[in-house]
Amino acid sequence: MNTVQSSVPRVLWPAVPGPVPARLLAMGFQLEQSQWWSPGEIQGQQRRQLGQLLDHARTTVPFYRQRLAAAGHDANPSPSDAFWHGLPLLSREDIQEAGQALVSEAIPTAHGHHRWLQTSGSTGRPIRALVTGLTGLFWNALVLREHHWHRRDFSRRLCALRAEAVDNAPDGADGPDWGHPVSTVYRSGPASLMGIHQPVERQARWLMERQPGYLLTHPSNLRALARHFVDAGLKLPGLVQARTYGETVTDELRALVRAAWGVPLVDAYSAQEVGYIALQCPQHDHYHVQSESLLVEVLDDDGRPCVPGEVGRVAMTTLHNFAMPLIRYVNQDYAEVGPPCPCGRGLPVLRRILGRRRNMLTLPDGRRFWPSFPAHLFTEVADIRQFQLIQDGPAHLELRLVAPGGLTPAQREELARRIVSRFGHPFEFRFELVDAIPQGPGHKYEDFISRVGD
Ligand SMILES: [Zn+2]
After folding, report:
1. For residue range 252-292, what is the model confidence (pLDDT) as tens digits?
2. Cα atoms in the Cβ-side hemisphere of radius 13 Å centred on 50
3. Residue 422 contacts by C-beta under 8 Å, 6 or more apart in sequence?
């Protein structure tokens, strides 16, 4: 049971919130209703907001003055389908090249202070994005929606292991509450933070000492932790949910988390420069697009919208960033469109987030897919603590392994046989035994990296 913080002396319940929490609660009140609207009703309201954004972009942002005029945009408040689908996509390269030309010459003062943020290298080419107090308000309102969807009990301890904490809490830090926006609105219990650069044994000890109700980290780090808990026979009896963000989640990881701690994994799909893109449904493993904040399209190679079951590029339009509008921005992520959700929410469904092209395998015949590797594929063959596959040629894979006892020729042959049967092509292998597999940019591990193709 979560209770709201009151701003009035001697009034504890029901609380009378101050201005900042009141604003967040008022946003939440609307989000609670709009999630149940029909897809048509949601699209109608998105169009109204999009009209405002396009008008602002055309009249105050140099980059869009040209681009929208060239696409035939006029003062029409509701863009037509033909106009919209003729509008070029915005790549990370476009953003880097455009620089200041993407910034509005008239950022509305009511949108609050603006600030630059830089995305981490782990998401491809780093870009700088200008965000405002208003985009921060939407971010925080969606943070609270995610908590409500998954019925979090704020009195329990939250333990977060984050790449972002490598600098500010490298050895771990304990705080009295969950921090903004949760503790601004609600009474909340303690939260602890640690950088994910710490060895997994150290992270596990830290978690055992704190016994969290909720554990938040990146999927690759969660995978390493869950394997460690299973291998060491350790438990976290107070854990209610494992939460992830920032990388791709597989069904194999969801099963591993169940095996390690007996709890579900709840994932959120976000990007610093656009905010929350899609949140996991409270009743299913798939995701609902956050249509109140973003217009999300999933497009095939010809630029047409994908239908349920198809995989395509994710293109996003930020509906409320009037400092640096991102219109049809492609961040190099791919997703599979899902059918309407049985939960009744009208928010569009993404069945899976598939990650980036850099993590796709290319077969010599040109087919591409995102490979996944259950740990037992390796651990059944030898004492293998960590692995990474790199495609460094059309038919060639490098297999990097941390195998303290080494590998016999028979074990190498068996590993190659298993991977070949999983990928459906007789790749050639080079084995490289290493002491450790370093984290990539942003302190993340990647099981598979392709150096083939574009
Ligand atoms: Zn749903």
Report:
1. 899 999 999 999 999 999 999 999 999 999 999 999 999 99
2. 23
3. 371, 373, 377
Let me know if residue 415 belongs to a domain: yes
- Residue 224 CA to residue 229 CA, distance in Å, equals 9
Half-sphere exposure of 142 (CA within 13 A, CB side): 24
CA of 83 to the centre of ligand 1 (A): 31
Q: Mind listing the pLDDT tens digit for each residue in 198-224?
A: 889 999 999 999 999 999 999 989 998
The alpha carbon of 214 and the centre of ligand 1 are apart by a number of angstroms equal to: 22
Q: Note whether residue 344 is domain-resident.
A: no
In our burial notation (b when 16+ CB lie closer than 10 A, e otherwise), range 333-342 reads bbbbbbeebe
CA of 316 to the centre of ligand 1 (A): 21
For residues 68 and 60, the answer to whether their CB atoms sit within 8 Å is no
- Residue where the block lists tokens 């999933």: 298
289: phi then psi, degrees, rounded to nearest 5? -65, 140
CA 377, CA 317: separation in Å to the nearest integer?
40
Q: Predicted confidence band at 17 (pLDDT cuts at 50, 70, 90)? A: very high
CATH number, domain at 409?
A: 3.30.300
Is the separation of the CB atoms in 198 and 192 below 8 Å? Answer: no
What's the rounded Cα separation, in Å, for the pair 320 and 138? 8
Distance from the CA of 270 to the center of ligand 1, in angstroms?
Answer: 18
Determine if residue 309 is left, alpha or beta; phi over 0 gives left, psi from -120 to 50 gives alpha, anything else beta: left
The pair phi, psi for residue 338, each rounded to 5°, is -110, 165
**DSSP state, 95?**
H
Number of domains forming the structure of the chain:
1
Q: In this structure, are residues 411 and 379 in contact, taking their beta carbons and an 8 Å threshold?
A: no
Domain range for 391 is: 361-450
| Residue 110 maps to a domain | no
Q: Is position 151 within any domain?
A: no
Centre of ligand 1 from the C-alpha of residue 351, in Å: 10
Q: Which DSSP letter does residue 78 get?
A: S
Cβ proximity of 133 and 102 under 8 Å = no
Q: How far is the CA of 90 from the centre of ligand 1 (A)?
A: 29
d(CA 268, CA 433): 34
